[in-house]
Design brief:
- By secondary structure, this protein is α/β, with parallel strands linked by helices.
- It folds into two domains: 100 residues, 3-Layer(aba) Sandwich (Rossmann fold), CATH 3.40.50; 97 residues, Rossmann fold, CATH 3.40.50.170.
- It is 35% helix and 24% strand.
- The strands form two sheets. The protein has a seven-stranded mixed β-sheet. Strands 8-9 form a two-stranded antiparallel sheet.
- Helix 1 crosses helix 6.
- The structure holds 5-O-phosphono-beta-D-ribofuranosylamine (GRF).
- 5-O-phosphono-beta-D-ribofuranosylamine binds next to helix 1, strand 5 and helix 6.
- The site of 5-O-phosphono-beta-D-ribofuranosylamine (GRF) has 15 residues, from helix 1, strand 5 and helix 6.
Length: 201
């Protein structure tokens, strides 16, 4: 399965996926990493590892125009599955239509709680005792779409946004490659909002 990974920043989830592939825990290939910001540190990870990368700057471009470029690039690289990994842009319905049930996102909260920016800060300020992360299919709404895997972590009394984010991030790095693996192995069926994962044979 050929992955297209979209990033805007640090790229640690992209790196976790690349590591899982390198360790043969995940049977997939990263066909292309696309960044919408030329200075995204995650692009250096792709450079260092010799993974194909492309910068398509989004600043000043309308959503539809940008997404047309994205779809072209993803098709050129024969991408089967699009993985948003800290990609800070909403996609138009065109991308979802071009890759039906083939676009994933990771979000640092137990959705549907705390969608949007600064999810870890939202969780801390709300005072929840359990936080976590979610891998889900992407639809045209923000942090919406059927949920594939969630992982929970405790919120500790002395947590800061940084310490809570780090605890959540460690789980993100585990569940994102795992969710991609379920899809690569054809174990997932989606019925409405419910995602079922078949037992391994
Ligand atoms: C992660 O917390 C992810 O859940 C959110 O953006 C952050 C990206 O981090 N969507 P990284 O670029 O993968 O390190």
């Amino acid at each position: 399965m050929r992955l297209g990974i979209l990033i805007s920043g640090r790229g640690s989830n992209f790196e976790a996926i690349a590591n899982s592939i390198a360790r043969r825990r995940l049977d997939a290939e990263i066909a292309i990493v696309i960044g919408n910001r030329a200075n995204a540190p995650g692009l250096d990870i792709a450079r260092d590892r010799g993974i194909p990368l492309r910068v398509i700057p989004s600043a000043g471009l309308e959503r539809e125009a940008y997404d047309k470029l994205l779809i072209e690039e993803l098709r050129t690289h024969e991408v089967d599955l699009v993985c948003l990994a800290g990609f800070m842009r909403l996609l138009s319905a065109n991308v979802i239509r071009a890759f039906p049930n083939r676009v994933l996102n990771i979000h640092p909260s137990l959705l549907p709680a705390f969608a949007g920016l600064d999810a870890q800060r939202q969780a801390l300020e709300y005072g929840v005792k359990i936080a976590g992360c979610t891998v889900h299919f992407v639809d045209e709404f923000l942090d919406s779409g059927p949920i594939i895997i969630q992982a929970a972590v405790p919120v500790l009394d002395n947590d800061t946004v940084e310490s809570l984010s780090a605890r959540i991030l460690a789980q993100e790095h585990l569940i994102y490659p795992k969710a991609i693996g379920y899809i690569a192995d054809g174990r997932i069926t989606v019925e409405g909002r419910r995602v079922r994962i078949r037992e391994e044979e």
